## 1
Amino acid sequence: MANEKIPYKIYLTEDEMPKAWYNVRADMKVKPAPLRNPANGEPMGFDDLTPVFCDELVKQELDNDTAYFPIPDDIRNFYKMYRPSPLVRAYCLEEKLQTPAKIYYKFEGNNTSGSHKLNSAIAQAYYAKNQGLKGVTTETGAGQWGTALSMACGYLGLDCKVFMVKCSYEQKPFRREVMRTYGASVTPSPSETTAVGRKILEQFPGTTGSLGCAISEAVEVATSTPGYRYVLGSVLNQVLLHQSVIGLETKIAMDKYGIVPDVIIGCAGGGSNLGGLISPFMGEKLRGERDYQIIAVEPKSCPSFTRGTYAYDFCDTGMVCPLAKMYTLGSSFIPSADHAGGLRFHGMSSTLSQLYHDGYMEAVAVEQTKVFAAAEEFARVEGILPAPESSHAIRVAIDEALKCKETGEEKTILFGLTGTGYFDLVAYEKFHNGEMIDYIPSDEEIAAGIARLPNIPGIND
Amino acid sequence: MANEKIPYKIYLTEDEMPKAWYNVRADMKVKPAPLRNPANGEPMGFDDLTPVFCDELVKQELDNDTAYFPIPDDIRNFYKMYRPSPLVRAYCLEEKLQTPAKIYYKFEGNNTSGSHKLNSAIAQAYYAKNQGLKGVTTETGAGQWGTALSMACGYLGLDCKVFMVKCSYEQKPFRREVMRTYGASVTPSPSETTAVGRKILEQFPGTTGSLGCAISEAVEVATSTPGYRYVLGSVLNQVLLHQSVIGLETKIAMDKYGIVPDVIIGCAGGGSNLGGLISPFMGEKLRGERDYQIIAVEPKSCPSFTRGTYAYDFCDTGMVCPLAKMYTLGSSFIPSADHAGGLRFHGMSSTLSQLYHDGYMEAVAVEQTKVFAAAEEFARVEGILPAPESSHAIRVAIDEALKCKETGEEKTILFGLTGTGYFDLVAYEKFHNGEMIDYIPSDEEIAAGIARLPNIPGIND
């Protein structure tokens, strides 16, 4: 062990926990591009967004200048139920790899949602409650976000309507039951309960649904039911703001022990975990105080950073949401049935896209089988069964540590372990049985997705 | 909040973690009765037990005098990966119940086995490795113990052969895949790989197996394969010794903040969790230093303490194991298909049975539907989705807190939250759908089980 004084797990005391979220946009010289109205291409302001989202969240969404937003006491108290999350020194993994590198991970899986999603779910539910709303609507695919939101709403006594992609609803009954335990209503999408759902069912009888369709249903219910708003678990600026609690806790814990990471690694789907983990470190980098190597890891099956283009696009396949400027494969791009459901998003957070575009971070894409091999290696020595999403970061952390073994460098590597894989064992089984396939889209498929980007004069031309 | 200074979660530092296990038998005036050979009724000694169990574990099993066993460094390092477990102040549950009681729980579910089982699994695997063995065998029903043992063996590079009851193997493929991730071989029982398995399959073609049969297969493989021993996750004295880490951590955390529990509550199947949680408190009670109300909670469907008899009996339905003196419903008693698989054992730890017999603890039995109602109430305010087993303790903790509301007493209640319910969602679904049944055995059924106890002259007469 390189440093005997550093414990296996660093926990903060409640007094040391962050009292404000950090908004990385405040330190960006080039701000992320605004959301735009798909009808006329105009930037969307407060009044355009409040019919869909809670007022306070819209303010957070639009604010590129305020660096710190105080975390309300009620949210801090909820955080205390499952936070601080541990910053773990991966002594056992280092030993296994025989690397001179020092590896740390911030583990966000020790709560019933099994992931970091709860950090933003409780914030969004709180602001809805505070606005005097009756409830919120959302969509869920794999189910982590739906579970987190159900937990937050259950705690606050807020109604929660989840539209769950029908094939997931049927294939993942356990996820559905967890949400019901917390009092949420879970509707398989497309459903007969909305106009858009009925229309889709008429056009495509027997369809098993899609995330795009579930979003459309959730938005319809939110905007047509008095006292309801729609909430979302990733991509948006507000979500990255709430998730900054991950990076802030990490930074406080590291500072306490004088640890400075050389490399920071996170998996990237819509960007909620990566954006949260890196935010205070990125802040230092943007302000020129310190340099870090920051690596986003995405699946080769859905490589928005590494093979996408930087342009305005729809966030949803149903094309009902505002346009966002981001690295995208095109909203019509259908990723293969890759098992890391949380990383199967065609686009990427606007904030992270701008930072990547400006050279503040790197990105790598990895094959699924190599991700599961890393997951298994990690589980055996570190105990935790990781989610496939999180395992993308593990893969690259191991690769970096093995490079250090070659060069003899004693780099300090930090990665985000966003969640646990208890609900992903079908994928693990495929891996064990040698039935897992590495799907990599062809150049033609990538080009076709990008060719169908919305064509808005003066914006995407 | 009654005391502002007590945090939501109390974590010990690594320096504060226990350095030795506590053996409650050392403080018992009346020692638990010895294991006896079913062939001749003689007490079993070191040489009788070492063909089946590891040498060091047999020593621990037989030692009624040594109060503290130092925890080997390698085990303490493994403990540091997932321990200390948090002692949680249930502020949100207290608020919900509007009770003057102060409620604490020790949460053992923050590891991939999802339960406290890992505390003994790593100890048993360590001693096997230290003895130069190649591997261990065991049986598993619901899968928590098999998962914990797989994790421990995966970490130490020890072979692990798990016999999993065939119906669980088929119905719980996820549990099986977790074990495979950690490198264990999992065989559905009964199997063609053992003589006893083949015999059972010949007699009962198409049988879906039983725990008794799986034990018989695991013991056969351990005793007939050079370099292997059999290990067990509950009931035995050695297991309670290792699980004392739960109670010791709890006691250290409580002492640190000057908290003294009035009531201590744990669920009881074979006794591993309850015995571990209460041990240091029971030690004080046995030594006359302090009094505590200690309550064991069992399901009404399998009420060994409250409706069983105190006698020598087989620990397994296959009747291949030594006889233990315990509260038992008879090894032929078949509990209903109650969902709390971990509490479906016909007997009880000999140590706890003696303590109960001597009046040092109480026992209550609760109905399943009331247990799930408590589980759901708890989940919504405290966030954690509890295992059905653990929820038995939650039920009684809530009942005690509601009594305090009636009387105005400000009692301090401590209970053990042994694990999470991620793999028990079929049961939650039944509960949500109103399809859960409260099965309570008739007096005739209880009498029939007890009537078939082994009849050994001079012992059970």
Note: Chain A touches chain B through 44 residues (CB under 8 Å).
## 2
Amino acid sequence: MARLIERVGYTIAILGLCATAWSVQAADDPLPSWNEGAAKSAIIDFVDAVTTEGGDEYVAPADRIATFDNDGTLWVEQPYYTQLAFALDRIRALAPEHPEWREQQPFKAVLENDLAALEASGMKGLMQLVMASHAGMTTEEFAIIAEDWIASSEHPKFARPYTELVYQPMLELLAYLRDNGFKTFIVSGGGVEFMRPWTEQVYGIPPEQVVGSTIVTEFALQDGVPVLLRRPEMDFLDDKEGKPVAINKFIGRRPILAVGNSDGDLQMLQWATETDGRRLGVLVHHDDAEREYAYGRDSSIGRLDQALDLAPDAGWIVVSMKDDWRTVFPEATK
Amino acid sequence: MARLIERVGYTIAILGLCATAWSVQAADDPLPSWNEGAAKSAIIDFVDAVTTEGGDEYVAPADRIATFDNDGTLWVEQPYYTQLAFALDRIRALAPEHPEWREQQPFKAVLENDLAALEASGMKGLMQLVMASHAGMTTEEFAIIAEDWIASSEHPKFARPYTELVYQPMLELLAYLRDNGFKTFIVSGGGVEFMRPWTEQVYGIPPEQVVGSTIVTEFALQDGVPVLLRRPEMDFLDDKEGKPVAINKFIGRRPILAVGNSDGDLQMLQWATETDGRRLGVLVHHDDAEREYAYGRDSSIGRLDQALDLAPDAGWIVVSMKDDWRTVFPEATK
């Protein structure tokens, strides 16, 4: 009798689990923050097509690879990349140890908040700032620095932590894809070690599914303890042509879905979509000055120009933030 | 009534699934090809410790990362690396298109089977052979070439396909780890694109969990079609100090278990084990001339010397192929 009760209890427990899974799958709307329209329909049609067993366009779960850009696609990238905000804060924090920076560009510009001089220092200046702020420590030390900064910093316009300035519709899309057997990856121009400390918690994407730019690291024994030292030297820039190269190198499968927002994502979308089988390319268009930002063809950050021109012929969906998204950000947690 | 029957059927189906899963988990011996002894006990103790919820040494599933070397750890690497056999065969296959190779070293040596001249060409000659055989095509063309070769080639001593010359005890260990929530990765000095076409089928390790050496690839549009071209230039050598660097870059988490067989795996084992928390390092010692090969301290391929000296103090398990493995290879499939 006890055994029967135990068995019945077990069965009920299993049915309960199934009911939970079922309610997630069968929820009326997997993308509640997306307004009804062409973009939302195209995404749902695509997912239905590649997951319908026996259908012409069925894709086995193992090949359901989806790649997402990060800056401007999953989170805010204006008025400047979050990682640049981190680099500038870090330079300010390190300044007491570097009195020479007071007279040395581009550091002087940062310390004096001289945006004109900062811009005049160009790409070379930018790389100096990145190296001074991102190298010279072990990988584990850097992870703590990045994690502490992201936990304690706020966006200048929205006055919220950067990790809350992620797009609610994209969080839903990531979850919807995973519920349908997709493996979701980030493929970003941002530094991989700047993203990994928080992507799992914020996006549900574990470190090993984050692909990004890297600086050179070097294995060493410090007092017999193995460490990886971050050297002030670029290893790989994961942008434009670099994105398909990195996808091939890190993931080793071609995505069937790629999501981006700028010309930096153009080659990733080409690589994902311009081949046989059902594919989907998605571009987020920032046209919402009221709720976020409006920028695109002329922006120095997140320029969307050539990819926008190619989208109609390529069949890529252009998502209007203004029209297609009911909500932009998740509700504040505090 | 029909609905009730359907529901009962559904419940039975679910119980059936559970029973199947249960029988796998509760099998008497998860490592039947391992003889009882210190090595087997150490592995099982380790897995028990890190998977026991509430235990002092519990590790959350997400952090159960295990990295495996390939050549000599998961499959045979003697009398020479399988990838070298591939390169030599490929040079022979391409020779008709390259009449100049008949007079040009190291190609002449390959075509004339002149092992002395081949060895005399050294690392420089080897790299020439690798580049001539591995570059100059798209990534997708190379995948087909590698896949065709591996499906049609046999090992000179065992006269079996290379993919059957994988170690049965390691196949069991990989499955046992995955059954216990581990994510299994390959971290090999071999070319990543030489391994990925077959690792999922043979080891159950998908392409995105294979880390290896890479050559430079370049994104291009060929008649409007995006391709990745393999250039005759090394990108990254995933060996020795390169292994922890690659683990950090590709996986972004530190393994808690690392398995290798040579000094090329030394730094990977140091990186995985010489830190806080319960960790395990494993070295396979090839001491079985009868069933496989016996080599180690003086071998040019798979040298195991320094790592063997460090093993006792580091607490790494040295697995004797002769004593610890009941079976070496899986049964032939044909």
Note: The longest helix of chain B spans residues 2-25.
